[in-house]
Amino acid sequence: MIVVVDERELVTAGFNSLFDREGVACTGFAPGEFDEWVSSAAEDDLRSVSAFLIGDCRDGSVSPRHIRGRTGAPVIALSEQNSLENTLKLFESGVDDVVRKPVHIREILARISAIRRRAETEPDCTEVGRMRIFMDGRDPEIDGQPLPLPRRERRILEFLAANRGRRVTKTQVFNAIYGIFDDEVEENVVESHISKLRKKLRERLGHDPIESKRFLGYRLVL
């Protein structure tokens, strides 16, 4: 899930729509609401955030260092000023990157992946047996051949790969794929997506690489 912070509701709604087209959950906050949320959010909720995008906010109303005190997710500033002074000021505030608007959503996702690689928290791809699972939106490969997947199923496989070796609950998968504030979608939709994903993987691999246990969740078998 991507979290966008901006004083303008039109901006946060716009990013929400653009990320949704890429199959990436996104939620928007006004600066005051965000400060309260990031200070009190549960650890599981924060773990579902893959990056924070900080847009137009009052000076000092959003502190990147405060965010980093609670989570290691990348913090990227969205700048509308073509000014070296402003760019340096943003970096001094503690952000990981500064992106000049307008910018394509895929560039933002690529920058997030690059930051995670540098931090050694997320590699270019994860190899699980005959599977190669990418973290930048590309379809996974099996035996070197792409396996086309719908965006939600692809994101679920990426999330399982990012948490390889650990079991994740249905709620954690839902939060990562749909966001923690999506009340219009039932959490049980995760079971449908995973069922379809497992069928496609089983057809190509000859076995099911996703282990599930009732009440405990899912795990990608290494």
TrEMBL record:
Task: Give a GO biological-process term.
Answer: regulation of DNA-templated transcription
Give yes or no: UniProt keyword Transmembrane helix.
no
Tell me which PROSITE patterns the record gives. Answer: OMPR_PHOB, RESPONSE_REGULATORY
| Domain (OmpR/PhoB-type) ranges | 123-222
Source species, domain of life: Bacteria
Which residues does UniProt call coiled coil?
Answer: none
Annotated GO MF terms: phosphorelay response regulator activity; transcription cis-regulatory region binding
Q: What is this protein called?
A: DNA-binding response OmpR family regulator
Gene source species = Aquamicrobium defluvii
The taxonomy runs:
Bacteria, Pseudomonadati, Pseudomonadota, Alphaproteobacteria, Hyphomicrobiales
